[in-house]
Amino acid sequence: ALITERAIAAIGTFKEFKESLEGYIDASGEKMSGFETAWASLTATIHKHVYGVDSPISARVG
């Protein structure tokens, strides 16, 4: 049960961080740095595993 609780907490934290990341990118309107591009790609991959769908942010990477 502890592992499940930790997974749920981690997913909740990830959702919050993903939303804040998307807000930052939308607000800046600038080209992402290499780190931001890599991080966005990683979060898009995690999003796909968590939700089973592509993240809307993945369309903006590349």
Automatic annotation (TrEMBL):
Protein name: Uncharacterized protein
